[in-house]
Write a structure and sequence with these properties.
Layout lengths: L10 E5 L4 H10 L4 E5 L9 E5 L1 H5 L8 E4 L13 H21 L5 E5 L2 H4 L6 E2 L10 H15 L6 E7 L2 E2 L6 H10 L12 E2 L2 E2 H13 L5 E5 L5 E2 H12 L10 H13 L6 H8 L3 E2 L2 H7 L8 H16 L1
Helix pairs in contact: 1-7, 3-5, 6-8, 8-12
Length: about 325
């Protein structure tokens, strides 16, 4: 992501800098910028001048920066073992703390908050846009929407504030549902849900980094922006891309929806992995529109096609497992 000749050096503070997204943003932004971190751990990191602890923030010791990118948060626990209050303490509490710091320091002109598509809607009929009335389900989405509300209730004059709602972010180094699916397909286990033709929006880390770079270097209006790749993909297409990456033939079984729904009910009672909730998650549509952010950046398409971004991520899993 090359910077233009007249690029102004920015002092950027990234919270949660050692996480998956933080690490990728450092790689994308370190050339031509000065980057500081704020995190619960502070190992040295290439491209980062210094990582501070959250205590430093309370003591007001952090250097003046131009921009804060707030990533630190409690990620969605797919096993549902996290207490609700932990989400609110981290996702809402830390956001209030860092946003207050931003408001109190005149020199900090831009604030980027990473919320989540799940703050807007747990399930989507049609296409998700930014003007949806938020209806999160569960403490992860609820704690993120509480953070969004706090930001919106404290307007920042003469500053820019961006609330981002990305769909599933993936890229080299990420851990999550995509890794689980990859490992299932790698074992040669057939995909039994081929009859469900659902489509989902993914977000490649390269497209995300491109958007962040755009927000930092251009004068984009404050607001809420969905973030996602240009094309939504079906789970069947995703299975095919995984097989392509592995050099295997895709085994997709189109068992009847009714049969699979009954199976999920039985499996749920027997505490097997494919229960009704997981079946819903694996087969639902979740399409998010990125038209607003593209219009704000003055572009027609994002640089990385959805399939290419996924292929890059999947190939990185192969490298890691070597």
């Amino acid at each position: 992501m090359g910077q233009s000749k007249n690029h102004q050096i920015m002092n950027i503070l990234i919270t949660g800098i050692h996480g998956f997204v933080g690490s990728n943003l450092v790689a994308a932004l370190k050339d031509g910028n000065i980057i500081y971190g704020l995190d619960i751990v502070a190992p040295e990191k290439e491209g980062v001048v210094k990582t501070y602890s959250w205590d430093y923030l309370e003591q007001g010791k952090i250097l003046e920066v131009d921009t804060i990118i707030h990533l630190a948060g409690k990620a969605h626990d797919t096993k549902n073992q996290t207490e609700a209050e932990v989400y609110f303490k981290v996702n809402t509490g830390l956001t209030q703390k860092i946003f207050d710091y931003f408001l109190a320091h005149e020199g900090i002109k831009k604030f980027v908050f990473f919320s989540t598509a799940k703050a807007a809607a747990d399930k989507v009929d049609g296409v998700l846009t930014e003007d949806v009335v938020p209806s999160p389900v569960g403490p992860y989405g609820e704690s993120k929407i509480a953070a969004e509300k706090y930001i919106q209730e404290h307007p920042a004059t003469d500053k820019r504030v961006y609330i981002l709602r990305p769909c599933m972010i993936h890229g080299p180094g990420n851990k999550g549902n995509l890794n689980l699916l990859y490992n299932v397909v790698k074992k040669g286990i057939p995909w039994p849900l081929g009859a469900f033709d659902n489509r989902r929006t993914f977000t490649s880390i390269d497209n995300l980094s491109f958007v962040i770079n755009g927000l930092l270097t251009r004068d984009v209006a404050s607001g809420i922006y969905n973030i996602g790749d240009d094309e939504a993909l079906s789970t069947n297409e995703l299975i095919e891309i995984i097989c392509q990456s592995l050099g295997k033939k895709a085994h997709i079984w189109k068992l009847s929806k009714g049969f699979m729904t009954k199976m999920a009910k039985v499996c749920g009672k027997l505490h097997l992995p494919l229960d009704e909730e997981r079946l819903r998650k694996l087969t639902e549509n979740y399409i998010s529109s990125n038209a607003k952010i593209k219009s704000a950046l003055g572009i027609e398409t994002l640089p990385v096609a959805a399939r290419d971004g996924l292929m890059k991520t999947l190939n990185s899993f192969k490298e890691e497992q070597r």
